[in-house]
Amino acid sequence: MTQADPPAPQAGPRTSEATQSAPAHAHAPSAEPPGAARPGSGLRGRFRFRFGVWRGLTPLLRLLILTQLAFNVGFFAVLPFLADHLGGAVGMAGWLVGLVLGLRTFSQQGLFVVGGALADRYGVRPVVLAGCVLRIAGFAWLGFAERSWSVIGAVLLVGFAAALFSPAVESEVARQAVAREEAGGGPRTGVLALFTVAGQAGAFVGPLLGALLLAVDFRTVCLAGSVIFLLVLAGHWWLLPQHIPGRAPTRGPGGARALLRNRRFLALCLAYGTYLLAYNQLYLAVPAEVERAAGSQAPLAWLFALSSLLVVTAQLPVTRWAADRLGLRRSMAAGLVLLSAGFAVVAAARPAALTGAGGLVPVAGFTALLTLGQMLIAPAARAWVPDLADPGRLGLYVGALSSVSGLVVLAGSAATGSLLDAGLPVAVPWLVLAAVPLAATALLPRREGRP
Q1: Helix (H) or strand (E) holding 370
Q2: C-alpha angle 366/368/370, rounded to 5°?
Q3: pTM of the model
């Protein structure tokens, strides 16, 4: 995420104050970046398109995109296996596992507004470095935590670390992408999609690494995550500039009161939070279903790999297709419908109680539909924020998108944990989960662009 965590989960590219100067038509299709080829059919065409975008990037953008890759390798080496560890080794009840996962998401997504404000005030470098230090400490603590209060403390530290470094990196990527767009280098969406691809490549490698180390124990997985972030810390101490040209510190009180009166923006936040809640089921409902069908958590790593592989291979073509044929609202609505369809697939198959490879097919279908929905929802939501933000306060709105949606996940995760433990007919929890994103389509703002 999101990812960088996912639901960052990842977490994905957001915008910065630089986007305030972008024209109203900035999200429409525009000229290709120099050297880029339109994606043709087959792997060769997609590779040429990705390489064309990458070749046109500045060294700073390349560093930040590779940063997202490294963040997600470390994060996804640990998080997919957390729910099983909490329910098994720590012995937490289902509702408490759901609450802990929700607290992790809230301490990350919910505090993005803090990290974004700090990055605006003090710059990217110190905030990224501080976040890496906290993530190193949080993963090490989690590896040795054996009681509920200690686990909660470690999880909160892990989440807050991402609330520091993720908005700093993502906002600068967006700011640089907008500057590149305004200089005639091509649409920002190409850069932001490449940022998402890098994050998902990390999400592909991370679970495989974690599954390999889990053969030792969960503590080894956590310590490996700490080592990865230690390497990231060293690299950014050496390579990340002290002062980035064109980035001026933001001073003075914020515009929180105006934000809270902005109904269109808050509606977007609620719809986006529904997507994050659905994505969070990869860590809560899906592990339980995998355990039931396969008798172990081993296939979970392959489901995360499937999700990441889909994004790595299809995100850029999907982004271009959505830009050519769908507006922001229709992209988000289509993505939410796909999320609902994914839950419905599992609900339809669950009464048959299939096991083995056949029992994993529905949850694999859910993962694929969830990922396709993510590819439509995340870029559209983040591209919509500049049109809804007050002038001079885009950083606040970017952080608030994650903070408000984090509150949705916090409340929804505990409710989902209770729903899964309630002893209801096996299809009912998945049908309830299917109804939530479908209902969220009604929350989307009716108009695009500025008022």
Answers
A1: helix 356-388
A2: 65
A3: 0.70
